[in-house]
Amino acid sequence: MKKRYTHKIFKNLCKGCSLCVHYCPKNVLEIGEDRKVFAARPDDCIGCHMCEMRCPDFAIQVHVCEEEKEEVK
């Protein structure tokens, strides 16, 4: 079963620079009408954490979905 990931985005920290969007190898992220990032295609995420590592304001976190964590145990 493919791992699934969720994106926690801190809108108050996001300045809409779109670095995370450009570094995502699977085009998961987009900039919305509010000029903030959002996960447009979360099912395509491979969990590489490039968005997290490249965000200069620490506005995004990537986590394994909870149901996946429980199955691993």
Topology:
Elements: E1 5-9, H1 19-23, E2 29-31, E3 37-39, H2 50-54, E4 60-64, H3 66-72
Keywords for this entry:
two-stranded antiparallel ribbon, Alpha-Beta Plaits, 73 residues, single chain, alpha+beta, globular
Description:
The longest helix has 7 residues, at 66-72. The strands form two sheets. The chain has a two-stranded antiparallel ribbon with strand order 1-4. Strands 2-3 form a two-stranded antiparallel sheet. The two termini are 15 Å apart. The radius of gyration is 12 Å and the shape is globular. The mean pLDDT is 91. It has 73 residues and is α+β, with helices and mostly antiparallel strands. It is built from three helices and four strands. 23% of the residues lie in helices and 22% in strands. Strand 2 (29-31) and strand 3 (37-39) form a beta hairpin. It has helices at residues 19-23, 50-54, 66-72; strands at 5-9, 29-31, 37-39, 60-64. The protein has a single domain (5-72), classed as Alpha-Beta Plaits (2-Layer Sandwich).
